[in-house]
Request: fold
Amino acid sequence: GQCVLVCPTGALGERDETDRALEMMYDPELITVVQFAPAVRVGFGEEFGLPPGTNVEGQIITALRMLGASIVLDTNWGADLVIMEEGTELLHRLKERKRPTFSSCCPAWINFVERHYPDIMPMLSSTKSPQQCVGALAKTYLPEKMGIDPARIRVISIMPCIAKKDEIVRRQLIHDGVPEVDVVLSTREFARLLQRERIDLKSLEPSTFDNPYMSEYSGAGAIFGTTGGVMEAALRTMYYVVNGRELEHIEIEQLRGFEGVRTATVELGGDIGAVKIAMCHGLKPTRQIVEEVRSGKSDLDFVEIMACPGGCVDGGGTLRSKKAYLPYALKRRETLFGIDKNRPVRQSHRNAQVQALYRDYLGAPNSEKAHHLLHTYYTDRKIEMTQTVREVWADIKMIG
Ligand code: SF4
Reply:
């Protein structure tokens, strides 16, 4: 796969990462922190014969504890945090009349920009993805709060996504040789690991998260896994920031279609007014929208991009639904909307654990400390499109 081209550790490609993950969890010297993405809980039951879209969040937590994970966190918490950072950034950019801003949580999309359209990099939100925000804080904030040695921590992510493997080895996300996230297992690999360890997900009693710092999530964080979810989550919080009160109808139906590109105009009120937004999934519609923006014809303010058609609910690391199984992806999506509906808190800014992070550690969204830990930058990698594998490797060796 393409990820081999940019992997400085040789850990990617076809090599199965389940052994590395298990070794970490077995090692008594290490504290393993495991996180799993919004879409994983609704796309995993199928691997064990459960109906498509079944929410197995609780069973995944149980399974991880059986395997020896020390701390189980939720990437959904990171999604809420991303909304705080990205929403604030976006409001600043709107005031400065910089537009559009593109979402930055999908690493396949980031790769696409860096390799094909580096000229639009300044339009990408600088906010890291939820996986990386959780990783960065699991090695800083979490050990400080829990009184543990950060050097003992290893972060393992379970992701519906192959590009996430690629993301964790980005140079910008490794600090003095220490990566924010150590291992990514795809949903498929995680299923293989459970099968190998003879853990039958179906028969497990569900558990709940118990980490008091980084596991609670709002309905907004939950819908990150489907196309349009990031946008809906961001609008809920931006509306609140601008108006000082909650959006009345928080399920923004006009955003919930399934067409490749959906656009809408949303009134945010206050000093912002109406914003024009677009949600785009799949690479063909993405290319179309990028070309439009580059030609100067677009008046969009904020664009959400998901490289996989459907978003992460149909990610490349998941039992893929493809055309014949489109109902699978739709079922998973439906379950995510159901989770949102039933959460006591449905806006990212009302997540009490995210509020505590700002109060006790970061100060405010986009503060200097928040910038240092939760924001990143992008680099022109167009040259990779013409380099041979050997040349890319030589470059990596020189740097690494
Ligand atoms: Fe990964 Fe696909 Fe989700 Fe992008 S849309 S983060 S490539 S699963």
Summary: The chain has one domain: 10-374. Residues 106, 108, 160-161, 163, 306-308, 311-312, 315-316 surround iron/sulfur cluster (CB under 6 Å). The CA atoms of residues 127 and 207 lie 31 Å apart.
